[in-house]
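Researcher: I'm preparing a figure for a lab meeting and need a structural model of a single chain. I don't have an experimental structure, so a prediction will have to do for now. The sequence is pasted below. Please return the structure as tokens so I can convert it later.
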Amino acid sequence: MATSPFSTPCNQVSSEAQEPARIKSERLESILAGLAAELAQSNHEVSEALDRAIASISATRKQLDGIVPKTQKNTAQAGFVSPDDDFKPFFGRMWHEE
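Model: Understood. Here is the structure written out token by token.
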């Protein structure tokens, strides 16, 4: 009686058939480990860039804090709404004329 190739139980797969799968698995594992390392490095670089941007924005804001109070009177005289007024961005000029 001829045996069918499908008659072999799944758990009795030859070691020859398992070898290419093991090699592929190890290669895939290595690739994934490399990608994970690159992602971690990239996240670190992005985090550092964000920290530098935040520090730059904070420094600029501190510089502007000294300038803005001096110019608020000028913008109010020109008809623009000061930041302390209610939200009237488009009607500032008309609001001061009333």
